[in-house]
Structure formats: structure tokens, C-alpha cells
Specification:
The complex is a heterotrimer of chains A (326), B (363) and C (604). Chain A contains 12 helices and no strands. In chain A, helix 1 runs antiparallel to helix 11, helix 6 crosses helix 9 and helix 9 packs parallel to helix 10. Chain A starts with a helix and ends with a helix. Chain B has 363 residues and is mainly α. In chain B, helix 2 crosses helix 13, helix 11 runs parallel beside helix 12 and helix 11 packs antiparallel against helix 13. The longest helix of chain B is centred in the middle third of the chain and has 37 residues. Chain B is elongated. In chain C, helix 10 packs antiparallel against helix 12 and helix 16 packs antiparallel against helix 17. Chain C has 19 helices and 21 strands. Chain C is 33% helix and 18% strand. The longest helix of chain C has 28 residues. The chains are: A mainly alpha (326), B mainly alpha (363), C alpha+beta (604).
Chain lengths: 326, 363, 604
């Protein structure tokens, strides 16, 4: 286990480095810069801005400065009180280039908890809805219940999430006005966005768990349990679910990445001040520092969650060996 | 599926001669997955209907230029979108104007064939028109081309790159396996939307003079990018399956019995992997179609006046508000999209059951 | 067989984790800020770029900064003329070079300090400093010594030669190096407000490197306007609270104002319809305009903005003026404004929006005429639908625009017009904003969409972008006579003479057509009808300090006076939870049962 984690950590470092490098060079190579605007800046103003954000440096120096952990600003080493460390590796993403009076760390600190709240709620909701639907439909395969659950589950997967979200708003905020249309602040505000975010994943989990359950139900040890006189419900919940959980758990990795991507749309429609909004906006605005910040955070979240899932997966199925997997 | 614990050499095999082994191999080897699959598949009505629907859609989409539809780009500026009209009250009129974007030679030929077949006759606004007076039905049919093409493109890369990658990793194993799979992991962690935004802006290369075409059209760039990111999950799934097959009893037995690697590949590995590949494909396609919609929502979709379902849905989603009631603008693309994805899923389910593949996710 | 213990363990952990996730999420959101609804809530689009008046340049930023700070002069929200702000009176020397401002004795910062002339000297010096990198600094370059100061090498400059002086605590003198006839109009812009020197310098001393991102935080920002910054949540909302030290605090009705950052217009609309927002300003999807126009709360007012296509005059055949004329004369502008945009925009036949600004009347360009256009194109040597194969085929044009639904629809329609009238194929090329700007700057386009919004009501604001050395020209078009006329107009104090020069220049522009003007903008506001003091003007700059809630009597009177007729649907009443100090009681008496209902019956 320890060896696995150490290896994963090494890969994690490599992944982060690749993502930083890729993001850095993609951003610089894209046409347009953070300070281009319809009303063109006066050259002296633009030069001053470029200097302020070190865009006048040679590319390699900008790269090392962005990467960190040393602050190449020069000032830091002259004893003027600046932090000698900086850059992504020191956990400092620098000032945002688009929002000139906030730092990227400020932006992330205020938006990330919101996105994580929404994302984990959506994942939890997807698991609860998906598993219950899966169990219900595996309880009596082929029945009306099974068929309707399966149709519903497929329904969650066939519409783009922006259509789904707009429909939910229309129904639950206007036709049956019980929930707020948009915004953030109370638990009620979270209901519609997390539902819109969770539905496609709930649908997928329902399918996965149904298939897993039916597969497990045909195994010997289930037959043994049944022979001993256990009820079907008890068998489902007590014995079969464990075996059926493995594919669901392994799906959580991609699902987490999907929830993150989905939140780009959902946060916009529901006006939620999460990190998803910055994701597209920073790339489109060529806000180099903020784009770097959100990309690194995204990569770390996805990688971290995948590792977590791998660990959970092995715990569920002891036949798998982490040493081998790593 | 076979038990994974069977990966060690069975004890009864140690002293057996080849003849005996051959019989045992036959017994261990599952019956041809293809025949079994075909039998099981035919039994389900939902699967049959899904397949019919998809074939019909593919035909419709391929033959779009030949159909007597109004042109999807012909603008008749009207102040308001017009609601759908029942075919029996307005079956059609003779006002067809051939106004398209730059078509490829085949489509051009189809369009001229259409004009000679139907003349200026065109269908009425059965699904209504949008704010620029363009026929929604025609746009949905033409839009299917982009969406299906994106899906097809993703399918091809998944097949070519994804399967090769995964199979290579699984078969060779060891260090190469580790390397290949970590590359996939790293790529998974790179946000694709980021790549999409930037690739679209680089490859949209500047041109020097009026009338010169850019290096790659936006659509081509789009296909490239979608293809480039859609093979990752396929690689993972295939590798997992190959590893499992490698450890399975019948492959082990065949190897000990002296079968050559190509023979094992062809007879044992390929058929068993193919089922999974097909199933995985039918699951990838819906997600790619939805991804196209997602990109269109962000304004990164196809270049107008071309259309795609995603674009239509993104445009129509505006109609989903408490004030306006141009429902047909969203209903039309949403319904066909839902039907197509539904059919793809049903087909995927059917295939999965038919091939007896465990539903697994792209780990 | 599977080992039992870890499986049970993992299932329990998973269940516990699930519960923890849900409880945590709900708690986190509940602990989040459930605040009272502000007296007045509005949105003007996404998150403001900056609250630093020297760094910000946009319109949403302006709304907040003008509520927080007050410059020497402010625009009267009805006439848009400069009116006394922080300065009570001022004198201009006869040569137009020296301005002396007398500050109000009761002008105070939100911490109670008096606003002094030194504050202005310090702030304007900061604005001009190259290090500040302020976009609007160039507007002050007419001040003595300012240009040298701003463009000179870093560190080598000395602020004394600047023509800014504090004659005493309350007298501020500005000496100009060159005549600027619209200097007072320029000063109405929010970049020229004073900043509180003491608090910023104290912060600089404590945080030498990060003060730049700290000083605009609520706990540090000291302002001199009607409001102070009470709270700022990035990408969510800015809460402004009434400043008790503002000299006209008695006239400010809204105690608190929330500015929401909303990326999507449809969520803004939804929030408005449920009464959560009182004013939405934004480009309304054209599909919705038809329905919104029927409502009493939709207000479209002529706006100082022009929508046009730039023509790359360096690329043949667009370097031929006849081709540009032909393209311009086949655009059916009225069809675009009446059937595509529909909100009241006007077809533009000059570059100046609405054909006139104040006393200036723009010349008109050649009228739309498909036949004349075709003969122009034929004269340039190209085949037209009527020429029966005579002439070379016109190459495929590219119409370049930035990703947005409205721009796309317009480009599709214009391409359709050209195809119909001239047989010209125009391909559409859509780029995301920054790539679009970069392509436009490097003249990598054939025709490119653009717009221009005026800072104040003056034709020079629009015509100056077409001079040869203007960075905003971006078409490759150069005309020496035009440059000369604009330069002369700039230094002319008498308005009538100035306008004559502008008129002559614009006539050149309209003959040469490096740009194809399409339409003049309207501002599109959804405003709660109960809101009083909301002045419609050509810059869409109502004064937040003048807003109040109208009582039932006043509302009824206004509804009767509304010329737009009876069929307008009534807007929703203010929602529950609205607490306005002055009309709280009146509201309940007047709107009765309508409280908090999302829509009126007739709209369901």
C-alpha cells in the first residue's frame, strides 16, 4: 500500500508538471493576450502592464517564474519584504491579469469551496439516486418497476445538461414555484443545480449497479445465502450490493471529472460563484495566471480522486493488488 | 466471465499430452461470441427498433441534400419564428432556393439530383422556422450530419488509437504497459475543454488574401480535437480486458499447448475484445454527441451557416424561459437528440447483454 | 471468496462519507452568507474587472465606481452635461487653459476625513504614473507636463512640473498644455475621481508587494461617493452601503445596493422575473425582444454606440472604394433593425450613431441601392448577377466576427444580402474574443465586426478612431485630409466651428468607407416600474444615488402618463423581503396581494 502511494505520488508530480507546462505554453501560444481589448491600449500603457506581469521577460524565465518554487521577481531577494518563494509549486499563482485587484489565490479561495460543495453534493446525490434505482430495478428484473427505472435512467443521459437545467428551472421555479431560480446562499439554492448536475451520473450509476447486481446474484455464494432462506431484499442489500459496488466505485473517478466539467455549464445557468465560471472565462480572456490556477486545481482534483477510487476499489475487491496496478 | 483466479496453471495439466490438451482447450474455450451475440441480439424488440431507427437516421443524414427539404441556410428574414404547420394543411410549396455553404462534390451532385427530381418543390414548415425564417426540419436533418460525423470520427479514433494503445499495453505488459497507461492518466488529468479552446484558436490559421481558404476548417479542427480526446477510455477498457484474457484459463491452456501468439490473438483475444469494444463504442458515441452540444453551448461549435444538433439545442435553450413560447426551437433538436441517444443506449445495452460483457467503466 | 471484513468496513465508510458529504455541503451553504436583500439590486453582466478607478475601463465597473467615488464634476443623468460633483464651482480662464475647481466644504471620505485638493493632485499623479498602467491616463495628457511624465523613463521623473496644484485645502488648479474643449466632459469619467491617499499609503507601508490587490477590499477601501463598499464576494455580488458622510446623504434613498455578477442573461432574466433583481441591463436575445417590448418594464433608449463592419482596405479587391461602396449599399439595414434586432435600434447611415450627437448633425452616406451597387461592382471589373458572365468572378469574402449569437445572426443576414444583390459569397468566420481581437489588430480579416461606444456625447469620440495613427483604426485606411481635419477640430474651442470640421471629415469617411456602419445601439433595460429616479440617457448611466421606490399614487400616475398604451403587461411587484426606508409602508399599502408573486395572472 505504501509503495503504491509513493509511486502514485511520483506520477502525481509528473502529471502536475505536464499539466503546468502544457497549460503554460498553450496559453502563451494562443493568439491575443490578456491586455488586448476592443479599445486598444496605448503602447506605453501596454508596456507598463506587460512589465508589471513580467510578460516582457524571455519565455523560459516566465516559465520558471510561473512554475516556482522560487520567486524570480528579483525583489524578493533584495530584502524588501517580498516572499522569496512563488509560483505554482509554492502554492502561489500570482495576481489575476484580468481582475486586476484580486490574486488568483483569492479567486480560488472564494470559488473552490463552492464548486466542491456543489460537486460533492451532486456526486452524493448521484450515488444515492443511482444505487436506489439500481437496486429497485434489480429487485425484480423485467418488471414494470424495472422497466420504468431503466427508462428514467436512460432519460437522464440523453439530453444536454443545459437543456436539462433550463427545464428544471422552468418546472420547479416557475410552473411550481417552490425553489429559487438561481443564486447561492441557502441549502434551497443548491437543490436544482446539484440535481441537474447529478442526473446524468445517477442514470449511469443506476445502469452500472443494476448490471452488477444481476451479475452478482447469479454467483454461488448468493445461491447459498438464498438456500439458507434469506429474503431477496436482504440478499440484495446485504450480500449482492457489495459485489455490485466495484464497478460503481471505479466509475466515480471519471464521474468526478465529469461533474467538474458539467459544473462549467451548471454554474453559469444557476449563477453560482464557483470555479467553473473561471475555467472558460480565464482561457478565453487569456488570463494566464488564473487559467493556470484553475487548470492545475482541476488536474489535481481529478488525479487525486482517481487515486482515491483506486484505493477504494482494492479495498472492495481484495483480489486486486495495488502493487500490480501501480 | 471466467474466474480470474484461474490464472495459475491448472494442476491436472502437468502430465497431459497434447491431444488431451486440445480437447480440454475446446471445452474451455467459450463458444463463438459472434454467433451467440447475434442470436441474443435478435430476440429483443427494443434493440431491433433502435437499430432500425439509427440506420434510418444515418440514411436520412447522408441523403439530406437529396431530400425535398428547404435549404437549411436560406434566410427569409421575418420578425418572429413561425410555429410548426401540420403537413396536411401546408404540405409544401414551390419556393425552393438552393442556398448552401460550400459543399463537397458528392453533396453538390446530390443537390443537383434533387433539383432535377423535385424541381422547386419543397416541404412546408412542418417543424416551424427559426427567427431568420430557416426551416427547423431542414436544419435538424442537416444538423444530424455534423453530430453523427463527430460521433463517427470519435468512434474511428477510439477504434484505431484506443484499441491499439490498450491492446499493446495489455499484451506486452511490464514497463511498456505502465508507461502507456500513465500517459493515459496524465492526459485524463488535462482538462480537454482547455485543449479545445486553444487548438481551435491556433489552427484557425491566418490567411494572406481575400478568397484564400485557411489550412483547416473549423469543423476539421473540431473533429480532430474530439477524436484526440475520445480514445482514452477505450484504451483503458481494452487493456483491462486483454489483461484478463491473458490470465484466463483457455488462453493459458492454449499457450501451454504450444499455440502461437498470432493464433491466440486471432482466435481467443480478438473476438472477446471486440465485443467489449463495440459495447464501449455505443457508450462513447452518446457522450461525444453531448460533448458537441456542450461546446456549442460555450460558443465553440461549428462555423455558421453550418448547423449541428448542439448548436440548435444551444440556440433553442433560450426558448426555455417563462416569457417566450417558441417551444419548437428547442423541442425539435432535443427530441431527435434524445431519440438518437436513447437508441444508441438501448443498442449498447443489447450488445452488452449479447456479448455477456460486464458493464464496466473506463478505469 | 472475498474477505468479509474490509467489505463491510468500506461499505460503512462509504455510507458515512456520503452522509458527511451531504451534511457538510448543506451546512457549508447554510453557513454561507444569508443576507438581507438589499434595498436595490441590479446586474450589468459579469464580474467587474477591478474596483481601482485607474485600472478599470468598462461599463459595469463604471456603475460601481461612480457609486463609490465622486469626481470634481459628474454627468447630470438627464442632460449628460457636466454638473457639480465634488467641486461646487469652477472657473475657466479665457484661453481655456486653466481650470480652477473649488471643492465643497462638506465633501468627505467615508471615514469622515475631508476631501482636499491634495487628494486630487495625488490621485491624478498616480493615474499618470507609468507604473499604474492606467488606460485612461492618456485623456489627461493635455495637462502640462503630463505626457512627458507618463511616457518618460521609470523613476527618472519628478512630479513638480505637472500642471496640477493644490492652491489651498479646497482649491485645485489644473493647467492644460493644449486646449481641450471637452475637458469637463472628460473629467466626468470615473478614472478621474480622487483616491484616499492616507489609507493607501498606510497599506503600502504594511504590504509593500501585495497592497495592489488589497486596497480595494471592503476593509481597506475609503471612498468619497454616496456609497461605501460593504462587502465583495468575487463573482457573486458587491454590496454597497450608504455613506453617512456623503455631502448629499439626505437625498440618497437606497440604504444598500447589491450589484450581482451574472454571466448568463437568461439567469438574470429569471432572477428579475422572480423579483430578486430590480434592474437588468444587457443584450437581450433577439428572440425575446418581441415579448419583452410588450411589457411596461422594458425600456429601450437610444444609446451612444455604433455597430459596423471594418473593411480591410489593404487587401484587394477591398482596396477599391467602389467595391466597398457596393458592399455598403446592398446591406438592407432597416430589415436588420426591424426584423432581426427589433428592440428599437436604428439603421445607421453615418458613422456617428443616430445621425446626430447634441448640436452635431452627421452627413449621410449614399443610400442603399442594389442596382447602383451592381454597376459599381461591374465598374470595378467584377461579374454581377446582371452582367451575364462579363467580368471576373468576385473572390470569396470572409466575414469575421466574435462568437456570439447576435453577431452570428447578423453576419448570416448580411452575407445573405450580398449573395442576393451582388452574387458575392461570404464565408463566416467566428473566433473567440481574444483571438478575434488579435486577428483584427494584425489585419488578418476581410471584413470584421466592430462596435464603438462613446465616453461622452461628442462626435470627436467616434471620428477620432479613423485617423491614420489611431490604434483603433485597424483597417489600414489612411487619409491625410481626414487626419488634418480631425487635428484641427481637436483644438477648436467654438462648438459650431468644431462641428463643421467634424462634418467635413465624416463626409470623407462615408465616401471612402473603411467601415460599413450598420446600426445604432439602444440600451435595453428591464426596470422594476416601481423604481423612481431612474433616468434613461444615451450612456445608460442612471445615478444610483437618485433612485427611490415610488408609492402607489406616483406609480399609477406614471402608468397613466405612459404613452406606450394600455396593452403593456404589468410588471411583477417588488418581492417579499424588500426593505426600503422611505416607502416600506407605502409599498404594502399600494401593491396589496401582489407581494412576492412571480408573475401577474395574465402572464401565466
Amino acid at each position: 500500500m505504501l509503495r503504491f502511494l509513493v509511486r502514485r505520488a511520483a506520477w502525481f508530480a509528473l502529471t502536475t508538471w505536464v499539466v503546468i507546462t502544457l497549460a503554460f505554453f498553450l496559453l502563451r501560444a494562443a493568439p491575443g493576450g490578456p491586455f488586448s481589448s476592443e479599445r486598444k491600449l496605448h503602447p506605453s500603457v501596454e508596456a507598463a502592464l506587460r512589465e508589471q506581469y513580467h510578460l516582457d521577460w524571455p519565455l523560459w524565465k516566465q516559465y520558471l517564474h510561473t512554475l516556482g518554487p522560487l520567486n524570480l521577481d528579483g525583489r524578493g531577494w533584495l530584502g524588501d519584504g517580498a516572499d522569496p518563494f512563488g509560483g505554482v509549486l509554492a502554492g502561489d499563482f500570482g495576481p489575476s491579469m484580468q481582475h486586476r485587484d484580486v490574486s488568483v489565490n483569492d479567486v480560488l479561495a472564494s470559488s473552490l469551496p463552492i464548486s466542491i460543495t456543489l460537486g460533492s453534493l451532486a456526486l452524493a446525490l448521484a450515488l444515492v439516486l443511482g444505487l436506489s434505482a439500481g437496486v429497485a430495478s434489480a429487485h425484480s428484473p423485467g418488471s414494470k418497476l424495472d422497466q420504468s427505472v431503466r427508462a428514467l435512467a436512460t432519460g437522464g443521459l440523453v439530453l444536454p445538461n443545459f437543456v436539462l437545467a433550463s427545464l428544471l428551472v422552468l418546472v420547479f421555479a416557475f410552473w411550481i414555484p417552490v425553489l429559487p431560480v438561481a443564486g447561492f446562499g441557502t441549502p434551497r439554492h443548491l437543490v436544482l443545480p446539484s440535481l441537474a448536475l447529478a442526473l446524468p451520473f445517477a442514470a449511469y450509476i443506476a445502469r452500472l449497479s443494476r448490471a452488477g447486481l444481476l451479475e452478482t446474484l447469479s454467483k454461488d455464494y448468493i445461491r447459498t445465502a438464498r438456500a439458507k432462506g434469506a429474503s431477496r431484499a436482504r440478499i440484495l442489500w446485504k450480500h449482492a450490493l457489495r459485489g455490485a459496488l466495484a464497478p460503481v466505485v471505479s466509475y466515480l473517478g471519471p464521474a468526478a471529472a465529469g461533474v467538474l466539467t458539467g459544473s462549467l455549464v451548471i454554474e453559469r445557468i444557476f449563477a453560482i460563484p464557483g470555479a467553473g465560471t473561471h475555467f472558460i472565462a480565464s482561457a478565453l480572456n487569456r488570463d494566464y495566471t488564473l487559467a493556470m490556477g484553475v487548470t492545475v486545481v482541476y488536474a489535481v482534483l481529478v488525479f487525486g480522486f482517481n487515486t482515491l477510487v483506486d484505493v477504494a476499489y482494492t479495498l472492495l475487491d481484495p483480489r486486486l493488488d495495488l502493487e500490480q496496478e501501480a | 466471465m471466467s474466474e480470474r483466479s484461474a490464472s495459475s496453471t491448472p494442476s491436472w495439466f502437468r502430465d497431459a499430452d497434447y491431444e488431451f490438451a486440445a480437447v480440454q482447450i475446446e471445452r474451455l474455450r467459450p463458444e463463438s461470441p459472434w454467433r451467440k451475440a447475434r442470436e441474443r441480439l435478435g430476440r429483443r424488440a427494443s434493440v431491433r427498433w433502435s437499430l432500425r431507427f439509427l440506420v434510418f437516421l444515418a440514411l436520412l443524414s447522408f441523403l439530406a441534400p437529396l431530400l425535398p427539404l428547404p435549404s437549411p441556410a436560406a434566410i427569409t428574414v421575418a420578425a418572429e419564428p413561425a410555429p410548426p404547420v401540420a403537413p396536411w394543411s401546408a404540405f409544401g410549396d414551390h419556393k425552393f432556393v438552393a442556398e448552401y455553404w460550400e459543399l463537397n462534390p458528392l453533396d453538390r451532385a446530390l443537390v443537383s439530383l434533387r433539383t432535377s427530381l423535385f424541381g422547386k418543390w419543397r416541404t412546408g414548415p412542418w417543424l416551424g422556422t427559426d427567427a431568420l425564417g430557416r426551416d427547423v426540419l431542414a436544419r435538424v436533418v442537416w444538423g444530424s450530419r455534423t453530430s453523427l460525423l463527430v460521433a463517427l470520427c470519435a468512434a474511428l479514433t477510439s477504434l484505431v488509437v484506443g484499441v491499439t494503445w490498450g491492446a499493446l499495453a495489455g499484451l506486452v505488459g511490464g514497463r511498456l504497459d505502465n508507461l502507456l497507461m500513465r500517459i493515459v492518466d496524465v492526459l485524463f488529468a488535462v482538462p480537454t475543454i482547455f485543449i479545445v479552446i486553444f487548438t481551435l484558436s491556433f489552427l484557425d490559421a491566418p490567411k494572406g488574401a481575400v478568397g484564400e481558404a485557411p489550412l483547416l476548417s473549423r469543423e476539421q479542427v473540431f473533429f480532430l480535437v474530439v477524436g484526440a480526446v475520445s480514445w482514452l477510455s477505450m484504451a483503458r477498457v481494452v487493456r483491462g480486458q486483454v489483461l484478463e484474457l491473458k490470465r484466463s484459463a483457455f488462453v493459458e491452456a492454449a499457450r501451454i499447448a504450444g499455440a502461437s501468439t498470432p493464433w491466440i490473438l486471432r482466435v481467443h483475444v480478438l473476438p472477446n475484445v471486440l465485443g467489449l469494444v463495440i459495447v464501449n463504442l455505443t457508450l462513447t458515441l452518446p457522450s461525444v454527441i453531448l460533448y458537441e452540444a456542450f461546446l456549442s453551448f460555450l460558443g465553440l461549435g461549428v462555423e455558421p451557416p453550418k448547423v449541428s444538433w448542439g448548436l440548435l439545442a444551444a440556440e433553442g435553450a433560450e426558448a426555455l424561459n417563462p416569457l417566450e413560447s417558441y417551444v419548437w426551437l428547442i423541442a425539435a433538436p432535443a427530441v431527435v437528440m434524445a431519440l438518437t441517444l436513447f437508441a444508441l443506449q438501448t443498442l449498447g445495452d443489447g450488445l452488452r447483454d449479447a456479448f455477456g460483457v460486464e458493464e464496466r467503466s473506463e478505469r | 471468496m472475498m474477505a468479509h471484513a474490509p467489505a463491510v468496513w468500506i461499505r460503512r465508510t462509504l455510507a458515512a462519507l456520503l452522509v458527511a458529504l451531504v451534511v457538510g455541503a448543506v451546512l457549508a451553504s447554510a453557513l454561507g452568507t444569508r443576507r438581507e436583500r438589499a434595498d436595490f439590486v441590479f446586474t450589468g453582466g459579469g464580474e467587474v474587472r477591478s474596483l481601482d478607478p485607474h485600472a478599470a475601463t468598462g461599463i459595469p465597473e463604471g456603475r460601481v465606481i461612480r457609486a463609490l467615488f465622486e469626481g470634481l464634476v459628474v454627468r447630470d443623468p438627464q442632460t449628460l452635461k457636466p454638473a457639480p460633483g465634488c467641486a461646487e464651482t469652477w472657473e475657466v480662464s479665457p484661453d481655456g487653459r486653466t481650470y480652477t475647481f473649488h471643492l465643497r466644504p462638506d465633501a468627505r471620505w467615508s471615514n469622515g476625513d475631508p476631501v482636499t485638493a491634495t487628494d486630487f493632485v495625488w490621485s491624478w499623479t498616480r493615474l499618470l504614473e507609468p507604473r499604474t498602467a492606467a488606460e485612461y491616463a492618456a485623456q489627461l495628457w493635455c495637462v502640462e507636463g503630463a505626457r512627458e511624465f507618463a511616457t518618460g523613463g521609470d523613476g527618472a521623473h519628478d512630479p513638480t512640473p505637472l500642471g496640477l496644484r493644490a492652491l489651498d485645502e479646497r482649491t485645485f488648479e489644473v493647467r492644460l498644455a493644449e486646449v481641450q474643449p471637452r475637458f469637463l466632459d472628460v473629467l466626468c469619467f470615473y478614472a478621474f475621481v480622487p483616491l484616499h491617499r492616507a489609507s493607501i499609503e498606510a497599506l503600502q507601508a504594511r504590504h509593500p508587494t501585495s497592497w495592489g490587490t488589497l486596497w480595494t477590499r471592503p476593509e481597506h477601501l475609503v471612498s468619497n461617493g454616496a456609497y461605501y463598499l460593504a462587502e465583495r464576494r468575487i463573482h457573486e455580488r458587491i454590496r454597497l452601503a450608504k455613506s453617512p458622510h456623503y455631502w448629499e446623504a439626505d437625498g440618497v434613498a437606497m440604504r444598500t445596493v447589491d450589484v450581482l455578477a451574472l454571466e448568463s442573461w437568461s439567469s438574470a432574466l429569471n432572477l428579475y422575473l422572480t423579483g430578486e433583481i430590480d434592474w437588468v441591463d444587457g443584450a437581450i436575445p433577439s428572440n425575446l425582444v418581441g415579448r419583452l417590448k410588450e411589457r411596461e418594464d422594458f425600456r429601450a433608449t437610444p444609446y451612444l454606440g455604433v455597430y459596423f463592419y471594418r473593411v480591410n482596405t489593404t487587401r484587394p479587391p477591398l482596396d477599391d472604394v467602389r467595391v466597398r461602396q457596393a458592399l455598403s449599399r446592398t446591406v438592407r439595414r432597416a430589415e436588420i433593425t426591424n426584423k432581426v434586432l427589433k428592440a428599437g435600434q436604428a439603421p445607421n447611415h453615418s458613422f456617428t450613431p443616430w445621425g446626430r450627437i447634441g448640436a452635431y448633425t452627421a452627413p449621410a452616406m449614399a443610400p442603399a441601392d442594389a442596382a447602383a451597387a451592381a454597376s459599381l461592382l461591374a465598374a470595378a471589373g467584377f461579374a454581377t448577377p446582371a452582367s451575364k458572365g462579363v467580368g471576373k468572378p468576385f473572390p470569396k469574402l470572409e466575414l469575421h466576427f466574435n462568437s456570439s449569437e447576435t453577431h452570428r445572426a447578423l453576419a448570416e443576414v448580411v452575407a445573405h444580402h450580398w449573395k442576393q444583390a451582388l452574387g458575392i459569397d461570404a464565408k463566416l468566420r467566428n473566433q473567440e474574443w481574444k483571438a478575434f481581437l488579435s486577428a483584427q489588430s494584425s489585419l488578418d480579416y476581410d471584413l470584421s465586426r466592430s462596435s464603438w461606444i462613446g465616453d461622452y456625447a461628442d462626435p470627436g469620440n467616434f471620428l477620432e478612431i479613423w485617423t491614420s495613427d489611431s490604434p483603433n483604426n485597424r483597417t489600414g485606411w489612411k487619409n491625410a485630409r481626414y487626419d488634418e481635419l480631425i487635428a484641427r477640430a481637436r483644438g477648436t474651442l467654438v462648438e459650431a466651428q468644431r462641428n463643421a470640421l467634424y462634418r467635413e471629415a465624416e463626409q470623407i469617411l462615408l465616401n471612402e468607407l473603411p467601415c460599413i456602419p450598420i446600426y445604432s445601439y439602444v440600451s435595453q433595460n428591464l426596470v422594476n416600474p416601481r423604481l423612481g429616479g431612474f433616468d434613461d440617457n444615451a450612456l445608460n448611466e442612471p445615478s444610483l444615488a437618485r433612485l427611490y421606490w415610488r408609492d402607489g399614487v406616483e406609480l399609477d400616475a406614471a402608468r397613466k402618463a405612459d404613452k406606450r398604451g394600455k396593452k403593456r403587461a404589468l410588471a411583477p411587484g417588488p418581492s417579499n423581503g424588500l426593505r426600503s426606508p422611505r416607502v416600506d409602508a407605502l409599498l404594502f399599502e399600494a401593491s396589496g396581494g401582489a407581494q412576492g408573486r412571480p408573475l401577474n395572472e395574465d402572464e401565466r
